[in-house]
Amino acid sequence: MKTRLWFLVVCLAWASAVACGDSADDGADVPDSGHDSGPPEALPLAYTGAFTMGETIPVEHKCLESVLGTGMGDNISPPLEWRGGPHETQSFAVVLFDTRYSRFHWAIWDIEASVTELPEGIPAGFEVADPAGARQRGGAPAHFNEYFGPCSDAGATAGVYEYRLYALSEATLGLPMDVTPDDLQIAIDGATLEMTAWSGTPE
């Protein structure tokens, strides 16, 4: 009887040890509850400006005069802000474009990917201090390396102007000071990942 009792105690002890061991092994095999969610989803390129989309561009941001009329505006570049864009974005560019005449007015490029705004009133000059490293080009001889704002047409039906924002795959376009508007647009188009536009009319 004592022998059977001792054998039962030994068996129970062995079974308990095996069960504990299995439990520990199971715990070791359970994967970590934490998980890598990957990079955040890229946001669509979004734009805000100094005026309401589709409405009249404020007089301070219009050109000083046009070929067909005078007394337009103050020719001060508007403040612009944006967010989003593809993960591959290396820089931004902004192009002011007259859609009625398919005419280039102004561009600023080589804007670092970390920058999300342009200040109002960017001074003249090919090299831009704010945002640092950016370059600009005007579309008229009198505004060769400065902002050239939207113009009214002295009573003619006003066209639509677009401030086009480009997310680019290149950190710098490597363009010279005397780049032509056509060559500049070709370089921008060739590096474009995504584009959106903020539009308005001069009157």
Short description:
The protein is an alpha+beta fold.
Please give the structural blueprint.
Elements lengths: L1 H28 L13 E6 L16 E2 L2 E2 L9 E6 L5 E8 L4 E10 L4 E2 L16 E4 L22 E8 L12 H11 E9 L3
Antiparallel strand pairs: 1-4, 2-3, 4-7, 5-6, 5-9, 6-8, 9-10
Task: Give structural notes.
By secondary structure, the chain is an alpha+beta fold. The chain has a single domain, classed as Alpha-Beta Complex (Phosphatidylethanolamine-binding Protein), CATH 3.90.280.10. 19% of the residues lie in helices and 28% in strands. It has 2 helices and 10 strands, in the order αβββββββββαβ. The strands form 3 sheets. It has a 5-stranded antiparallel beta sheet, covered by helices on one side. The chain has a 3-stranded antiparallel beta sheet with strand order 1-4-7, with no helix packed on it. A two-stranded antiparallel ribbon has the order 2-3. The protein starts with a helix and ends with a strand. Mean pLDDT is 78; it is low at 1-40.
As an assembly, this protein is single chain
End-to-end distance = 110 Å
Secondary-structure class = alpha+beta
Shape: globular
Give the neighbour order of strands across the main sheet.
Answer: 8-6-5-9-10
Range of helix content: 10-25%
Uncertain residue segments: 1-40
CATH superfamily: PEBP-like
State the total count of DSSP E strands.
Answer: 10
| Element pattern in H and E | HEEEEEEEEEHE
Average pLDDT for all residues: 78
* CATH T-level topology: Phosphatidylethanolamine-binding Protein
When the domains are counted, the total is 1
* Share in β-strands: 25-35%
Q: Number of helical segments? A: 2
* The first-level CATH class name: Alpha Beta
**Gyration radius, in Å:** 32 Å
Report the sheet with the most strands, covering strand number, pairing sense and barrel closure. Answer: 5 strands, antiparallel
Q: What is the level-2 CATH architecture name?
A: Alpha-Beta Complex
